């Protein structure tokens, strides 16, 4: 019994110990669970941080990406002070549809620009400029092509050479001399590039250009006859100090309205003094029919009378103008000079040096100097 009692006592003693051990195990388990949870949280947080870091790193990398290498800056040549002078002058008498052909080339008028430099023929002088075009066959890139060559005429004068414009062509029977403003033209001051930001009224310009306010966009609203007038315009000039060659001309232009086609010819009342013979020759050449002979002769006689009357009136007008002209004005006309400028040769433009001519037009005659 003693042994049994001892065993019982021993068993009872072990039971509490097992409970404590269980409690301790439970605590250990709870602690381990807690540690595991904390570990999982740390792991999860670490994983999130690990996932987040690359994004931050990527964003940081984008911000810190070196800039793209910049291309070399482009340098544009500085424009010359009078570089656009020739373009600002209206090309009088040029057909509107041909203007694009005129400006298809980058013409160089550095000779005109240099003329205004010290030592140049236009330096320090009051100058009036007008432009026109001369269609010519000229060589370019090993071929000869029809080219509308822009030319600029400089008139050295203390006052405008004329306030009028002439309208004349082979197709027109009569010549018209009209005020410039009737054709929307006028002399206006040219402002050099370096002075474009200045107030125009403060500038004392010595360069005046012939300008036209008629725009191509508005041509559609004009009658064809009005449009053609612009194409037949010629800068007008009258020199009262010398007799105009046209005042003494004995030739009349004949445009006889015959059928089936008009008769175009010239009749000189001094050389072709026999109108009968002149008319017969036209009939033989089948330019005129026999039944129109008398009407044609009367038509020519009337044109001759008109031309002779015009010559007399022109001589009388010149004589009267000279009588009323001041000495200062006479001196201005005597010292007036015309300079005709062609574009200088460049690799990008046709060479026009072989077609230069001193002739300006039927009113101005020939230039004093061609450049």
From TrEMBL:
Species source reads Ilex paraguariensis
Recorded superkingdom? Eukaryota
Key words, A-Z: Coiled coil
Which residue stretches does the UniProt record annotate as biased composition, category Basic residues? 1-10, 53-65
Coiled-coil regions, chain positions: 297-331
Q: What is this protein called?
A: Protein HEAT INTOLERANT 4-like
**InterPro entries in the record:** HIT4
- Name the Gene3D superfamilies on file: 6.10.250.2770
Give the residue ranges for region: Disordered. 1-77
Q: Where is the composition biased (Basic and acidic residues)?
A: 11-52
């Amino acid at each position: 019994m003693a042994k049994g009692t001892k065993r019982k006592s021993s068993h009872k003693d072990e039971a509490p110990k097992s409970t404590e051990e269980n409690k301790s195990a439970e605590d250990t388990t709870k602690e381990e669970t807690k540690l595991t949870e904390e570990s999982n949280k740390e792991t999860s947080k670490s994983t999130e941080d690990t996932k987040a870091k690359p994004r931050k790193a990527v964003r940081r990398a984008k911000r810190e990406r070196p800039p793209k290498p910049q291309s070399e800056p482009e340098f544009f040549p500085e424009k010359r002070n009078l570089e656009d002078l020739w373009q600002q002058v209206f090309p009088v008498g040029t057909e509107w549809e041909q203007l694009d052909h005129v400006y298809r080339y980058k013409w160089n008028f550095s000779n005109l620009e240099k003329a205004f430099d010290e030592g140049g023929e236009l330096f320090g002088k009051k100058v009036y400029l007008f432009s026109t075009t001369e269609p010519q066959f000229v060589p370019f890139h090993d071929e000869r092509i029809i080219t509308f060559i822009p030319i600029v005429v400089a008139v050295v004068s203390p006052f405008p050479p004329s306030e009028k414009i002439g309208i004349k062509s082979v197709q027109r029977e009569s010549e018209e001399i009209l005020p410039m403003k009737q054709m929307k033209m006028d002399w206006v001051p040219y402002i050099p590039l370096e002075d474009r930001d200045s107030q125009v009224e403060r500038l004392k310009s010595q360069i005046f250009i012939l300008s036209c306010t008629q725009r191509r966009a508005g041509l559609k609203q004009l009658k064809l006859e009005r449009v053609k007038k612009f194409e037949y315009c010629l800068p007008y000039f009258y020199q009262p100090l010398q007799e105009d060659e046209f005042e003494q001309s004995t030739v009349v232009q004949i445009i006889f309205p015959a059928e089936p086609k008009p008769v175009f010819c010239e009749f000189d009342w001094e050389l072709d003094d026999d109108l009968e013979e002149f008319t017969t020759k036209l009939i033989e050449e089948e330019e005129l029919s026999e039944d129109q002979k008398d009407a044609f002769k009367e038509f020519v006689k009337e044109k001759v009378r008109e031309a002779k009357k015009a010559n007399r009136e022109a001589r009388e007008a010149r004589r009267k103008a000279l009588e009323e002209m001041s000495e200062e004005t006479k001196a201005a006309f005597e010292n007036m000079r015309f300079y005709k400028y062609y574009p200088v040769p460049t690799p990008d433009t046709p060479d026009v040096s072989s077609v230069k001519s001193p002739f300006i037009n039927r009113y101005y005659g020939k230039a004093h100097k061609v450049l």
